[in-house]
């Protein structure tokens, strides 16, 4: 029976039972974590062999003879670039291999545009007064945090089943020159798990922003992170932008953080040649070059894009059952009560859960009190403020499956309590 | 006989002989390089074993149990920090381990202060109109390039035998609030090879800048890079600044680029706890953390600061003879002619050579034409403009010793030609 259709007495009965169950969980002294999209130890072990790919017997030479131990090569080894060019569908001249963090590449790109402008002769963002930024939400808290730190005004754009609300985006960017960019996770979006439809990608490419220095930050973090044998597909945004003459409008980011090692992977940035040339013009002042031995490790270990794809199936084998465990628990205990909605993603790292309005904070707080750490309620919205207080990001990858099942029991119990309290207060 | 005391006929004879010798070198089709301070292949091979320090048999755990393969740990592994804390004489809370590039840490520090100010409540440099920067010269071109790119006005400060001209620095910073910083390479300076005297360090620590957001960028790049058994010593600037109540005035940088791998080392930044806390407050928005597996490699391989010191003796054994070869050649062929002065450094990576005034560009150009690449004349000065056109940075580490000797013959021949031409034109 749906809780929304229950009588006061029935709700009180549910609440009473849930509270009693909850006290039991609290007594267990649990310390469980479904907060961050971190790979589990057995996933990290999948690339153990990479640590031997460049060892003391290696000459540390790249295919073109470059000694990877020494200085130089600003934009990355050719063979490492090839891996990612094939993955993202871009040319060698359209890609830079950076350090271990794509977030760092994004932050630096914002900082660069802020200080120097998006290209030669363009006005720096810092000199254009109030800057606004579009934030499809629910979205990635660390994206929002960067643009918030720079003092930009964050505008929430609702997420739909096929991507962000394009009507709203088209209208806003065509009207307002102070809107300089948008955050996108176009495939297996963080946290909603959806992939932008072909139409959405084409509408992005066809945008006619009033600001000629408007930029799409296309964080393709989960482009190879499929959970099923029938993966989503995503149109190549750079190709689409070339067709519309908008090729300088997009920066693409990706990394191997959830392919090889979360803390010691390789991150990349792709864009039009003009954009990449401009980035390199500044980057050559910032650094002599990133860690080429780690780039060589990745190239030697994965060999090619096919190697990455094959490797990702091993990740899926480990984490797909975890997603299934979360979804099974929700299907069994939440769905019949009508006290939450959630997606069933075909890839990525998250399940996005919506409580009844006004319950998310209470759920997360109850979980925390019982030793289950969730991403903070609101974190998926700009300024950490979820207008409906309903969205919770579930990250199922890190805990072992038995812990995950335990954590989900606590979570569901918390959802029941918060929902009953809410409905009773009406 | 000194060329400055030669008759016209004697000079013409020297010039004629040198030109004839020069044509001989050109005919050899040489491709030699004394341009950049790059370690030679045999130096890079010294840390070959580090590539096995974390291999597939490793659990990749830090001493405190941190899984180095996963996300997290913004400021670096404890044991890696310890290596550098001992090296620089600072506390754990006063240090951050970054990625592979100290230049990148410096650039980011400039950018951070430019965008956000040097601390909470401080005005951003970008909002303070014209910013000026002190550049002891000859100095490091990549330092100057950063502050030039940010549009700061670079003020040349002469280098003396015990450090930069402190009278000038004290006067300028006490008078001019728009002066926000200074570049320093305090030990085995790039390129002059001198180490700042205790008095100079104390005078730095005792500066009373008009700008309360004036910062010393103390690039201690060569702090363990001794060439002799009687190394220079450098006072601990942070300790000295604590004594004068100026502890927030200095940022210290170092790296293992010339200890382990130039392209895949570990870089660090040290400063007062207040400064480090502020850097972390921003850095946590910029990245989730740097490459911890590489940090672990360094900690496991070197074990402790004593390990680094012992290792540096191996570097000295390789490069000290190269310095000696350069100096011997100069002593033999330049000194008797009085056509150049140069230092004899006890550490670092460079020999700084001063031609007769107005000859440096000509020398570098002649070298280039004969296949010997030198650092561009003027590169050691702000804006690449050496007012006397006399300083040339010689980087002897990269070429094998036989190539170095060959390159020095060409160099000395070029110095003779340029000097004779100059003296004849008087």
Measured between the Cα atoms of the first and last residue of chain A, the distance is 19 Å
Strand segment count of chain A: 13
- What CATH first level of the largest domain in chain A would be assigned? Alpha Beta
Name the pair of protein chains with the most residues at their interface, and give those residue counts.
A-B, 53 and 53 residues
Low-pLDDT parts of chain A are none
Q: Which percent range fits the helix content of chain A? A: 40-55%
Question: Biggest sheet of chain A, in brief?
Answer: 8 strands, mixed
Total discrete domains of chain A = 2
In the CATH hierarchy, the architecture of the largest domain in chain A is: 3-Layer(aba) Sandwich
In spatial order, strands of the major sheet of chain A run 2-9-8-7-6-3-4-5
Helix and strand sequence of chain A: HEHHEHEHEEHEHEHEEHHHEEHEEH
What overall form of chain A do the CA principal axes indicate?
globular
- From the 3D structure, determine the CATH topology of the largest domain in chain A: Aspartate Aminotransferase, domain 2
The averaged pLDDT of chain A comes out at 97
Whole-angstrom Rg of chain A: 23 Å
Can you walk through the features of this model?
- In chain A, helix 7 packs across helix 8 (237-243) and helix 12 (360-369) crosses helix 13 (401-424).
- Chain A starts with 7 loop residues before the first helix and ends with a helix.
- In chain A, helix 7 links the parallel strand 6 and strand 7 (215-219).
- An 8-stranded mixed β-sheet of chain A has the order 2-9-8-7-6-3-4-5, sandwiched between helices. Chain A has a 3-stranded antiparallel β-sheet with strand order 10-11-13, with helices on one face.
- Chain A has helices spanning 8-27, 41-44, 78-88, 102-116, 141-149, 166-175, 198-205, 237-243, 273-286, 292-302, 305-333, 360-369, 401-424; strands spanning 32-34, 95-97, 132-137, 153-160, 163-164, 179-184, 215-219, 250-255, 267-270, 340-342, 351-355, 372-374, 391-394.
- Chain A is built from 13 helices and 13 strands.
- Chain A is α/β, with parallel strands linked by helices and 426 residues long.
- Helix content of chain A is 40%, strand content 14%.
- Chain A has 2 domains: 3-44 and 312-424, Alpha-Beta Complex (Aspartate Aminotransferase, domain 1), CATH 3.90.1150.10; 61-303, Type I PLP-dependent aspartate aminotransferase-like (Major domain) (Aspartate Aminotransferase, domain 2, 3-Layer(aba) Sandwich).
- At the A-B interface, helix 4, helix 5, helix 9 and helix 10 of A face helix 4, helix 5, helix 9 and helix 10 of B.
């Amino acid at each position: 029976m749906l809780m929304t259709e229950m009588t006061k007495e029935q709700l009180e009965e549910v609440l009473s039972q849930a509270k009693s169950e909850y006290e039991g969980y609290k007594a267990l002294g649990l310390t469980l974590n479904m907060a961050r999209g971190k790979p589990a130890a057995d996933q990290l072990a999948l690339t153990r062999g990479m640590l031997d790919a460049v060892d003391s017997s290696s000459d540390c030479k790249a295919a073109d003879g470059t000694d990877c131990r020494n200085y130089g090569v600003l934009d990355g080894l050719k063979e490492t670039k090839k891996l990612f060019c094939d993955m993202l569908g871009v040319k060698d001249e359209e890609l830079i291999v950076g350090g271990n963090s794509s977030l760092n590449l994004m932050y630096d790109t914002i900082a660069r545009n802020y200080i120097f402008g998006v290209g030669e002769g363009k006005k720096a963002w810092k000199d254009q007064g109030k800057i606004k930024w579009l934030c499809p939400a629910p979205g990635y808290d660390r994206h929002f945090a960067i643009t918030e730190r720079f003092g930009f005004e964050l505008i929430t754009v609702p997420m739909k089943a096929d991507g962000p609300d394009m009507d709203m985006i088209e209208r806003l960017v065509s009207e307002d020159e102070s809107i300089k960019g948008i955050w996108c996770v176009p495939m297996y979006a963080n946290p909603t798990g959806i992939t932008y439809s072909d139409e959405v990608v084409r509408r992005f490419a066809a945008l006619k922003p009033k600001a000629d220095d408007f930029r799409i930050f296309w964080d393709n973090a989960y482009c190879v992170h499929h959970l099923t044998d029938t993966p989503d597909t995503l149109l190549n945004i750079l190709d689409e932008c070339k067709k519309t003459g908008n090729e300088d409008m997009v920066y693409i980011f990706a990394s191997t953080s959830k392919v090889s090692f979360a803390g010691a992977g390789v991150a990349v940035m792709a864009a039009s040649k003009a954009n990449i040339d401009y980035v390199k013009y500044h980057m050559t002042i910032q650094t002599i070059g990133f860690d080429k031995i780690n780039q060589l490790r990745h190239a030697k270990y994965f060999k090619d894009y096919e190697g990455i794809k094959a490797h990702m199936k091993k990740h899926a084998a480990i984490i797909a059952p975890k997603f299934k465990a979360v979804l099974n628990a929700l299907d069994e205990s939440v769905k019949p009560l009508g006290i939450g909605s959630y997606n069933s993603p075909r890839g990525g790292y998250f399940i996005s859960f919506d409580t009844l309005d006004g319950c998310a904070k209470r759920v997360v707080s109850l979980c925390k009190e019982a030793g289950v750490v969730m991403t903070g309620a609101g974190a998926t919205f700009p300024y950490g403020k979820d207008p409906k207080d309903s969205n919770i990001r579930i990250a199922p990858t890190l805990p072992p499956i038995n812990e995950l099942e335990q954590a989900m029991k606590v979570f569901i119990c918390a959802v029941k309590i918060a929902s009953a309290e809410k409905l009773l207060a009406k």
